[in-house]
Amino acid sequence: MAAVHVKGSKVYVVDKEHAWVPAEVSAASATEVVAVTQSGTNVKLKPDQVAAYSDTADQGVDDMLELDILNTASILQNLRVRSKQDKFYTQVGSILVSVNPFKPLSIYGPDALDRVSSAPENAKLEPHIYGIAKNAYESMLRTSQNQAVVISGESGAGKTEATKYVLKYLTTVSGGADAGGQSKLEKMILQSNPVLEAFGNAKTVRNNNSSRFGKYQEVKFNRKGEIVGGAITNYLLEKSRVVTPAKDERNYHIFYQVCRGSSDSDKAKYKLADPDKFNYLSMSGCTSIPGVDDALEFADMSGALDVVGVTAEERDGVMRTLSAVLHLGNVEFEAGDDGDGAEIKSVDEVKVVAELLGCAEDTLTEALKVRTMSSGNARRNSVYKIPLKRKEAIDTRDALAKALYGRLFNWLVKKVSASLAPTAMALLETPTTIGVLDIFGFEVMPHNSFEQLCINYANEKLHQQFINFVLKNELEEYKKEGLDINIPFNDNAGVVACIEKTHGGVLSMLQEQVKLGQRGSDKAWLERMGMELGKDPAWGQPKLGNTDFFINHYAGQVKYDITNQLEKNKDALSQDIDGVLTGCMEKISNIMEEGNTISNTKAKVPTVSSQFKEQLTQLTNVLGSCNPHYIRCVKPTDLKQPGVYDGVKVCQQLNYSGVLETVQVRKAGFSVRVPLEDFCKRFRVVISLTAPPPTDPKPICDACKLGEDLWKKGKTKVLLKSERTLLQIESAREQAVVGCVIIIQKYARRHLTKKIIKALREEKRKREEEERKRREEEERRRREEEARLEAERLKKEAEEAKSAAEAAQKKKEAEEAARKAEMEKQNNEQKRQEEFKAQEEEKEKKEQATAQIAAPMLASIHKKRVMNPLEKPLAPKSSPSGSNAPIPTEPITFNGWMYKEGGKGLRGGTFHNWKKRFFQLKRGELTYYADDDRKDMKGNITLDANASVGEVPDDQLKKMPTKGVGEHFLQLCSKGRDLKMSVDKKQDKDTWISKISMTIKQIQVQEGKEVTEPTDGSSLPVHLPDKSVFNVKVTAATTAKEIFMKVIDAVGVTKGLQYFALVEENVTEEGVPTSRVCSESESMLAKAENSETSKLYFKKVVFVDRAAENLDNKVVLNFQYAQAVHEVLNHYHCGEEESLDLAALQLRISQGVLVPETHRPGWLLPIIHEFIPNHMLSKLNSLGKKWEEFILKKAFLLNPVSSEQCKQQYVQLTTVSPVYGSAFYHVARKAPDGKVARFILGVNSTGLHLLDAMTSTLLKSFPYEHIAKWGRSQSSFNIIQGEAAVDVRDEAERGNQQVPWDLRQDAGGEEVARPGAGGAQGVGDAGTVEESWCWSASGGCQNDHSTACDA
Fold first, then answer.
1. Are strands 627-634 and 147-152 parallel, antiparallel or unpaired?
2. How many Å apart are CA 1097 and CA 1075, to the nearest integer?
3. Which terminus of the chain is more solvent-facing, meaning fewer CB atoms within 10 Å of its CB: N or C?
4. How far from chain centre, in Å, is Cα 837?
């Protein structure tokens, strides 16, 4: 101890509130220790009030035998730490300490039970009550020996719950279950608990479900481990609780359950009422338990009665007995008129009791008021009836109530036990048993009487057996091994003898007083004990007071009060009460048939103590024949609250249960025992690999560096101090074995390596031999193949020579035929040209005549802009729905591929989850599959009479995907579902719409409904510059402004709206296209209905200032770029290098970032015409590869530049052209020689520009500031320019002479002034001041910018 009590060391010190608390030594001497607790309190203590500190206790070890420092303080600390960790089970060797958590835990479910039951037999498991049950069950199967699980502890420590979990484990792992999961016997065993708890448990101040009796429940098993039966024995029911429950406690649960849970009919039948109406239930002031539903508990108990085999008739007897007890408590007495005998005050209650018990009311009344006495012998006998005083009458009433309930309880236990009895077949094979003992713990009450004496006597007997099992067997083992090891322990044999010895024992002297009858008394019993036990150290008597004595129990001294212990021991009924019980109805008398003791006879009277002593002796004998397993239940607090740990109370209970003493004994001894021979064989490798096993373990222990205090050699065993010592030896053995293994592996590897090398050499020799043979065979085959090939070559050469001669002849004949065909073709072409020339001359003559007639009408030019003539009129628009087609009677079947919209829809104009599916229309249902084999169906939509199909609405069409799926969309709506689909061709879309629409009409006809047609207006397509189409639904009220606003909203134009317009393009009857800008209020329905001859375009039509173009606006930029590409490819006549630069920009924009692996030479050539202007296409064959190389090189250099920047650069390059933003017209000029020259006239914001009709080359520009006069009419117009004239003619006209432009007359015949007529100077005249130009409008506008014509 001196080594521990040094300054700064950690220790435990005594504490009144917590028993022991951690502290740190601040000063120490031989007589005094000064320490500071964790709370900062300074304490001065004697050395024996200080204990060494345990570091492992702060960790909360599973087994307290493994504590490095073992004392009471470290044990308490270990339990406290584990409780905080929610670990409420702790081992002390094979003993389990269970701390009541006072809260529900989730460690008892099927998973925990499976984990424990499936673990190997010797596996180390965390402490658990299932582990104790597992050890008992597996030990029974292994040894065929009976087992016993002894559960002890004070009231509220959790014994009842522990018993339930042990039985739950046994009934679960035993097997033999039926389809319901448990056999009938297993159910009966488990359901016996609710019955016994209801009748034998009550609320006390310490516990809401306290067992007020002891029970030993046996479960019988066959050799397979299956349950075959059971039995229950009860001990010492607390019958006094029936008539006098303590304050703030309750009577037995069953009374409150029948009052609150019985049906209304049963309450009327058995005269039941609220518990407050009965004296026995209300006298304690407590009739309910928080959180407990008595009615629900009664339902569970009633079901359990059915399971354990209580019949309806027997249940009726039970209910009558319970009600009779309650009504007996309401019987009141008063003093009689003579002042001696008592009179019954509540006669009606007596009548109810008599009715319930089925006995005569007079007999019951007399038994409660009178005691019958007899004297004499059999030949002469006198009978006396003595009236009872009021107190005696009350005692008689209470005695009857206790007798009724006590016998009912005993009968119920026997009934349950009988239902669990093994069958005759099961008894043929002697079953083994596992008994579970749930018995009251040691009790020290403020007032201890006869009940506490019996309870503590039982605990002394069980503790004695516990000592024999744990302590004496320990010492016996040492003696057997010849070891002189003495471990002091407290033997309670003297206390047991003091209580139970036949002559001179406490109980035997109490029995003597009972035999004395009226002469016996409590005082005489005390005097007798003083004479016999006055010198016994186990017994004593206080100096003050003459009604008490004390016994020095193993758990401490207990003082007992002798008052009324003699009567409690008798527990006998008077002759009159016995007559009442025997006179009850049969169903109750069967319950009351046992225990009829008569108090006024001289026969040997069985008393409570004698019966209890006999039962206890039988119990200890049974336990002695079993292999015991101990569970010590501990109650950490009287507050019944979780998280509270009362160290003083826990220490007291550990002392009562013998746990502290057990730990000390096991720790002081040698807990690990290994047979000597096995020890030497197993661990011999520690000292030698080859020597035979030694006979003495000392060399092994020395090699493992074990001190002599850690091991002992016995006669047949080697005893080790602890498992830690065994692990140290095992570690040394493992190291030695590893060394042996390494040596063995070394030689084994050497042997295997030699064997492998030999095998590899042999394999190499065989492989070389096979290779030699293979080469020889290949050489032979090669020579044969060369000879064969040479023969075939000679044969082939001969055949080729023959074929060449034949081919030369055929070639000669073919060339001759081709020459003749070419000559014939040239002749035909010459004739065709001559005919075409004649036709052209005739056409020119007609045009000249027409122009002369129309010349006077050239006053102005028509405001409408004429477009390029279409190659052919637009095809008539068909009705996709087939509204005018007859409805067929046969069901329509159709299938094909379409794209289908998925569940997530569209985001930002790109598709996310469109899938290509194979669709099938059949029997009014549209089904789609993953493939055309139609095996993997992905979904379907059923059509009905209200379904509709058509094109996707305009407001949704802009959200459809722009690539990756078909360009033509349709939409189907049916039964609340909206399915969008697309196809690659418009014809396919129209076909699907027609088929689905016709199917809907068939359904409407079948259901007798009117066939409906779409009424949501006509669809009007609006064409955009990027060749996309925006469809708008129009009605008679729809105006151009409404469509214009929808389009700008769809395309996102927000600024410069005045530069955009809707332009209508019409085709005249002569096939000449014209175009005009639509007015705001113009109705658009006619445009949709007449789409065969007209188209509607949304365009930018005004280009005011080239430098002011807002190219940062993406919408404007896209329009500008689309129109610029169109003009560059068709009208702008740029130079070759400039055109190639623009082509590189266009390629970079269309392809994105170029990749060398994909965009390599030769890739662009097949599609290069899409990027080259029309005027350069004639040179494509000769310069195509050169242009491709240039364009790709430029495009790769543009990779770092974004697409938007490339578009801006493209548009900026095109604005340099003088004809930028022009509207183009076909015009014609007739020369004096009669030839007609065709040109293209461009009109933009800078002026008028004349281009060659064939090459689009810019010939002449007329700025507006240079135009002196402008005239126009329906068919022609003229310009008078104020500067010198420029000869603008094609190459054929340019010669040695100057040819002036000829003027025309408009349709009205008005002469238009021109310098070339009426004396004015001509075009070729030098120095002319004024020049006139005149053209006839012979074609439509070549550009989409119609409003520029009116600039």
1. parallel
2. 10
3. N
4. 88
What residues pair up with 709 in beta bridges, in sequence order? none
* 859 confidence band (pLDDT: 50, 70, 90): very low
Q: Would the pTM of this model clear 0.70, i.e. be above it? A: no
Could you please report the per-residue DSSP string of 334-396?
Answer: EE-TTSSSEEES-HHHHHHHHHHHT--HHHHHHHHHEEEEEEE-SSSEEEEEEEPPHHHHHHH
Residue 443: active-site member: yes
Kindly state the helix (H) or strand (E) to which residue 661 belongs, with its residue range. Answer: helix 659-668
CA–CA gap between residue 335 and residue 393 (Å, rounded): 10
Annotated catalytic, 610? no
Q: Are the C-beta atoms of 1051 and 1097 separated by less than 8 Å?
A: no
Dist CA 497 CA 161 (whole Å) = 33
Q: What are the beta bridge partners of residue 149? A: 436, 629
CA dist 729 to 672, 708, 722, Å? 12, 14, 11
- The catalytically annotated residue of 72, 74, 210, 251 is 210
Catalytic residue chosen out of the listed positions 72, 83, 183, 207: 207
**CA–CA gap between residue 863 and residue 868 (Å, rounded):** 16
Rounded Cα distance, 1062 and 1091, in Å: 15
Active site residue 211: yes
- pLDDT of the residue at 380: 63
Instruction: Using CB atoms within 10 Å of the CB of residue 355, give its burial: 0 to 12 exposed, 13 to 18 middle, 19+ buried.
Output: middle
How far is it, in rounded angstroms, from Cα 1117 to Cα 98? 84
Phi, psi of 1243 (to 5 degrees): -120, 120
Look at 73-77, 620-624, 798-802, 853-857 and tell me which has the smallest mean pLDDT.
853-857
List pLDDT tens digits, range 1055-1099.
Answer: 777 777 888 877 655 554 566 778 877 777 777 766 666 788 887
Cβ(216)–Cβ(437) below 8 Å: yes
160 catalytic per annotation: yes
* Annotation marks residue 878 as catalytic: no
Among 115, 230, 215, 96, CA closest to 173: 115
Q: Which amino acid is located at 850 in the chain?
A: T
**Annotated active-site residue in 211, 609, 657, 662:** 211
Contact between residue 1311 and residue 854 where contact means Cβ atoms under 8 Å apart: no
CA distance linking residue 548 with residue 1134, whole number of Å: 133
- How many Cβ atoms sit within 10 Å of the Cβ of residue 6? 11
1234 is catalytic: no
Catalytic residue among 229, 230, 341, 441: 441
Length of the chain: 1351
Radius of gyration of the chain (CA): 60
Q: Do the beta carbons of residue 927 and residue 999 sit within 8 Å? A: no
- Residue 869 — very low, low, confident or very high, per pLDDT cuts 50/70/90? very low
Compute the distance between CA of residue 1012 and CA of residue 990 in angstroms, rounded to an integer: 18
The single residue of 74, 160, 448, 1275 carrying the catalytic annotation is 160
Average model confidence (pLDDT) for the chain?
80
DSSP run (H or E) holding 955? helix 954-957
Residue 253: closest CA among 175, 194, 173, 184: 194
Q: Which of 428, 416, 436 lies closest to 219 in space, CA to CA?
A: 436
- One-letter amino acid at 1171 equals F
Cβ neighbourhood burial of 1113 (10 Å; 0-12, 13-18, 19+): middle
Residues 900/937, Cβ–Cβ less than 8 Å: no
Q: State yes or no: is 309 an active-site residue.
A: no
Catalytic member of 155, 287, 417, 508: 155
Query: What DSSP line would sit under 1074-1125, residue for residue?
Result: EEEEPPTT-B-HHHHHTTTSEEEEEEE-----GGG--TTSHHHHHHHHHHHH
> Within a 10 A sphere around the Cβ of 1110, how many other Cβ atoms?
11
- Going by pLDDT thresholds of 50, 70 and 90, the confidence category of residue 1275 is low
Active site residue 139: no
d(CA 1009, CA 998): 14
- Identify any residues that bridge with 217 across adjacent strands, giving them in sequence order: 232, 436
Q: Do 859 and 1271 contact (CB within 8 A), yes or no?
A: yes
Long-range contacts of residues 348-356, Cβ cutoff 8 Å, at least 24 apart: 352/271, 352/327, 353/324, 353/327, 353/328, 355/271, 356/270, 356/271, 356/320, 356/321, 356/323, 356/324, 356/327
